[in-house]
Structures are given as C-alpha cells and as structure tokens.
Design a protein that fits this description.
- By secondary structure, the protein is an alpha+beta fold.
- The chain is built from 7 helices and 15 strands.
- It has 2 domains: 229 residues, Creatinase/methionine aminopeptidase superfamily (Creatine Amidinohydrolase, Alpha-Beta Complex); 62 residues, Arc Repressor Mutant, subunit A (Orthogonal Bundle).
- Strands 7-6-8-14-15 form a 5-stranded antiparallel sheet. Strands 2-12-10-11 form a 4-stranded antiparallel sheet.
- The longest helix has 20 residues.
- The two termini are 30 Å apart.
Length: 303
C-alpha cells in the first residue's frame, strides 16, 4: 500500500513528540511548559501541530490546552492525557497516551491501551465501523470500566481532521453499514472511565478553528484577520497562544469572531459524573487485510 511520505513523516514526528511528553510530564510541572516544548519540538522536526497540544487531566476527557500565561500544573496522583496532532503539508497524524501518577489508576489506563490494541488488530478493508465499537467496549467493560459512548475516533483527510466518518467506542446500529475502505485514514481513540461513560461540555479549552471565511460586512479589519487565520491554519484548530499578539491584537477580537460565528471555540469535555478518564489513540491506514499504525502509540507505553 502506497503511503505518502509526508504522512509517514507526520506519524514519525508524532511518535517522537509523545516520547518527549513521556519524559517531561511530571507532577508539579506547568502545563504551558509541556505544551510549548512539545509544539516547538514538532516544528523543529519539520512538522507543524495539527492542533494545540491537549493536556486533559483526571475527569477532563479532552480539549484542554493551556492559555497564555497559564499557571496550571500537573496535580499529584493525577491521570494525564496527552493528545498530539502533527501535520506535514496537510497530511495529519493524531495520537494520544495517558500517564498516571498513582498506581491505583493502572488498570483504568490499561483498559484504554488494550482497547486500542484490540481495535487496531481487527481493522481492515470492509470492516463495519460498529465492529471497532464492539472491540473497544468489550475490552474496557471486561476490566470493570466504561467506554465513553459520546466520544469517537474519526476519519482523516488532508487538512481535514474530522472527515465525515466517525469511529465509535461502543456498538451502534448506525455504524453497522459504514465500512472501512482500503487507503482510508482513521484516528482510533478509546476512552475509558470509572464514571458513567458520558461527557458534557464545560469550560474554555483555549482551542479555536475557523469555520467560515464569509466576509464581515461591517469590518474590513476583522475580515482581513479572518482570512489570515484561514490562510495560516487551513481550517485546522489553533491556540490563542499562537495568534494573540501576532495575527490578532487581543483576545476580545478572537471572541468577537466567535460571536460572529466565523470561528468556533471548543469547550472542554468533562466526564458527567466526574469519573477519571484514560485515553489512547493512534492513526491507522486501512489495508486490504489489516491496517498500518502511523504512530505506533502502543509501543510508547507498554504494560
């Protein structure tokens, strides 16, 4: 199977970035330092972050990236999800690991790791996407935890992180007739929790994405800023850290673009009963009889 060289490179950089995360994420370390070190590393290796580094702690399942002057630190005994995206000329890899600082969370974290392993092992041309949900759910529930049912993996295309098809983490009738096809690229990302298995939105993530380049009739300046954001990030998510003081003068301008529905602001995703959450993720290329992991996430943390 022919895999674009830029896609292979994105996966390789992503692997190295997650290994860096594993070496620098410690209790008491500032989230801002972690995110910036990983993002700068990606750029130094010839890639660019496909989205801001997500550092989601304990009951926060996803979508937290530190803001400008963020003073939050890794709490003692916590469960930390590090979700990293890399693109090279728009070819995207997306992967995540979970690091834990209290051994009582080992089985929770292992359940997400083993669910990813099970899902990758069955992925191939023609597989109903619902079968991925079955494999993920079976692994997680067999270990006494719950998959998060309203979080999914996703198909990826060039400059398109969420390209139409979703990959469920629980069995679902609606996915029985959606099948993987040779050459398609998917991010598979099981989430495991000791909570209820459902997330809700809550709180700022500091992550944004241009969703419309339609001109703002009342402001040429805002229209110019919007176009520059689009030309810089090509519709991929970006951090307020990357644009304020560079493309945008102040955060209020960014918030105005959100109110005008030209820019989307992601919310944090929090487990509904404040259960702790673990996540593992890899990006695969579907083959005729198997799949090829681009990042090899399972080899970064072994149990």
């Amino acid at each position: 199977m022919q895999i674009p060289e830029d896609l292979r490179k994105a996966g390789h950089i992503n692997n190295e970035a997650l290994k860096l995360a594993l070496s620098i994420v410690e209790e008491g370390v500032e989230l801002l330092d972690i995110a910036e070190r990983i993002e700068n590393f990606i750029i130094s290796r010839g890639g660019f972050p496909a989205f801001p580094v997500n550092i989601s702690i304990n009951e926060v399942a996803a979508h937290y990236s530190p803001c400008i002057n963020d003073n939050k630190k890794i709490p003692p005994g916590s469960v930390v999800k590090i979700d990293v995206g890399v693109h090279v000329n728009g070819y995207i890899s997306d992967a995540a690991i979970t690091i834990f600082f209290n051994r009582k969370w080992k089985n929770l974290v292992y359940s997400a790791w083993s669910a990813l392993k099970a899902a990758i092992s069955i992925a191939h041309d023609g597989l109903p996407l619902s079968d991925i949900g079955k494999a993920v759910s079976r692994e997680i529930t067999s270990r006494g935890f719950r998959p998060i049912e309203n979080l999914t993996g996703h198909k990826i295309e060039r400059y398109n992180l969420h390209a139409g098809k979703s990959v469920p983490n629980v069995p679902s009738i609606e996915f029985r007739f959606l099948r993987m096809k040779t050459g398609e690229i998917y991010a598979i990302e099981p989430f495991s929790t000791n909570g209820i298995g459902y997330v809700n939105s809550g709180g700022s993530s500091h992550i944004y994405r241009v969703v419309s380049t339609r001109r703002l009739k009342k402001s040429k300046e805002l229209s110019h800023i919007l176009l520059e954001l689009w030309n810089t990030y090509k519709g991929l998510p970006f951090s307020e850290r990357w644009v304020i003081g560079k493309i945008i003068d102040k955060k209020e301008t960014l918030e105005l673009l959100v109110r005008e529905k030209r820019v989307h602001h992601y919310s944090m995703l929090i487990e509904d009963k404040r259960g702790f959450v673990a996540q593992f993720e890899d990006t695969i290329v579907v083959g005729e009889s198997d799949s090829i992991p681009l990042v090899n996430t399972l080899e970064i943390i072994e149990f």
